[in-house]
């Protein structure tokens, strides 16, 4: 009998301690203060982007067309194994041959033997090789290697110019 009485007292007291600590938790006040002098931010250096004289931009990336929202709007993106990505390319898509230059408003897309270059004003963004550009009546499709090295297919709608 004394053991059961002792266990009952321990259970009741333990429950009271836990309930009390939960209800008093909201009264807990924590004050955090800075202990060091903040350092000025370090300059950002991305080797893929260079700012030439007069604010010009020279960059490399599979996102070259997406970086020109006044000319192109990305509507779809497929990544994965080569067969999966190529299956998302429409059957009526025609590859734009190297040596051609396409103009969409203020954007110019030059398809070279080694890479594709998108230019607008003093901005020049190159899609690293290997890359291919395909065209349908309503879309452009860029097939290139993504940041991880795997194939990427990006579909773009041409933005109508005012």
Task: Describe the fold and architecture.
Helix content is 18%, strand content 36%. The protein has a six-stranded mixed β-sheet, with no helix packed on it. It has a five-stranded antiparallel β-sheet with strand order 3-11-10-9-4. The chain is α+β, with helices and mostly antiparallel strands and 162 residues long. The mean pLDDT is 81. The termini are far apart.
Helix-strand makeup class: alpha+beta
The topology string of helices and strands comes to: HEEEHEEEEEEEE
Distance between the termini: 92 Å
Radius of gyration: 30 Å
Number of discrete helical segments: 2
Q: Beta-sheet strand percentage?
A: 35-45%
Main sheet attributes: strand count, strand direction, barrel closure: 6 strands, mixed
Mean pLDDT: 81
The dominant shape is elongated
Strand ordering within the main sheet:
1-2-8-7-6-5
Helix content: 10-25%
- DSSP summary, beta strand count: 11
Contiguous uncertain segments of 5+ residues: none
